Amino acid sequence: MFIDYARIKIKAGHGGDGAVSFRREKFVPKGGPDGGDGGRGGSIIAMGDTNANTLLNYRYKKLFKAESGVAGSGNRKSGRSGTDLILTLPLGTEIFEIKEDGSKVKLADITDHQERIVLAKGGRGGKGNSNFATPTNQAPRHATMGKRCQEIELELVLKLMADVGLVGFPNAGKSTLLSVLSAATPKIADYEFTTLEPMLGVVQVTEYQHFVMADIPGIIEGAHIGKGLGHQFLRHIQRTSILLYLIDIDSEDPLEAYRILRNELYLYDSFMDKKPFNIVLSKIDTIPEEQREAKVAEVSRLFEETTSQKVLAISSVGNIGLDALKFQLYKQIQDSL
Ligand SMILES: Nc1nc2c(ncn2[C@@H]2O[C@H](COP(=O)(O)OP(=O)(O)OP(=O)(O)O)[C@@H](O)[C@H]2O)c(=O)[nH]1
Ligand SMILES: [Mg+2]
């Protein structure tokens, strides 16, 4: 199950208390203080992991606690430190602390594999009484307590990390395109809203060059007010370097389709409008071969005249124009870096 939002609580481990203890040895009637220090509590650490791709682990379990430090003991023995608790998170997870008044503070944005960020530091261990002996007080009877840690409430929001985001009406052929350009195996079908959750695929351009493409559910007019599946998945293409508007060449009004899509993205986040993008006509194999060239030219001209944007035409099923598309996308990503 693809989960991209979770609320959890975390609690770092308490510090172990310092010990009050005195040496008791045979033939040493009055031994000095020998209480050891408490161990440090375990911290809660967030770590990015490319192999994770959902927040499912945080959906049902709600409290994540690190181990507390062990108290010190006699003979200057320090308590053991608590083990850290590592929360593995998919790349693209933003972590917010929810304060008591409900306000949110961003703590981290996990973008790299193995990247670690301490979310809650374990409590310091207390000092044992052996630390407090002075020439005037050779038998201190006090030690300090380990630091106690409070629960912290967090919000985890996953925004998938991809280079290219696919945008299109339902049935435009987005998932099919991802399936032919990458090893991903999204569900494909001849009805609207086949895709219900985002999926990533790695597109290999050459042996050493690749990029990541994100397929999201189709968008329809009014998505920003909740029509269709709404805009809830748009955040997964919010951070892509470029966008790809995929438009069925056989749609009634391809230019209008593009305008609607673009407007929905703009209404969701005006910044999306500033990203470099491509307009790609899909399913050109559905046009009989003898009319294809003319039709592609006609629709392309329409776009070029009104948007001064060049369009590409492809067929995922007929394997037309896919290499050109791949290279163009790769180049555009490089240019946008
Ligand atoms: N002839 C032809 N059919 C295609 C092509 N690409 C996709 N299709 C078909 O179009 C239908 C929809 O394809 P999908 O890839 O599921 O479309 P989608 O854009 O992901 O749709 P949603 O997930 O519902 O938004 C399927 O029946 C595909 O087989 C193509 O290049 N040529
Ligand atoms: Mg799909």
Explain the layout of strands and helices.
Layout: E1 5-11, E2 44-48, E3 63-65, E4 85-89, E5 93-98, E6 104-110, E7 116-120, E8 151-158, E9 164-167, H1 174-181, E10 199-204, E11 210-215, E12 242-248, H2 254-268, E13 277-282, H3 289-307, E14 311-313, H4 322-336
Parallel strand pairs: 1-3, 2-4, 9-11, 9-12, 12-13, 13-14
Antiparallel strand pairs: 1-8, 2-7, 5-6, 5-8, 10-11
Summarize the structure.
This protein is an alpha/beta fold and 337 residues long.
Describe the structure.
There is one protein chain. The chain has 337 residues and is of the alpha/beta class. It contains 4 helices and 14 strands. It starts with a strand and ends with a helix. It folds into 2 domains: 1-158, GTP1/OBG domain (Spo0b-associated Gtp-binding Protein, Chain: A); 164-336, P-loop containing nucleotide triphosphate hydrolases (Rossmann fold, 3-Layer(aba) Sandwich). Guanosine-5'-triphosphate (GTP) is lined by residues 168, 170-176, 188-190, 192-195, 217-218, 282-283, 285-286, 315-317. The site of guanosine-5'-triphosphate has 24 residues, from helix 1.
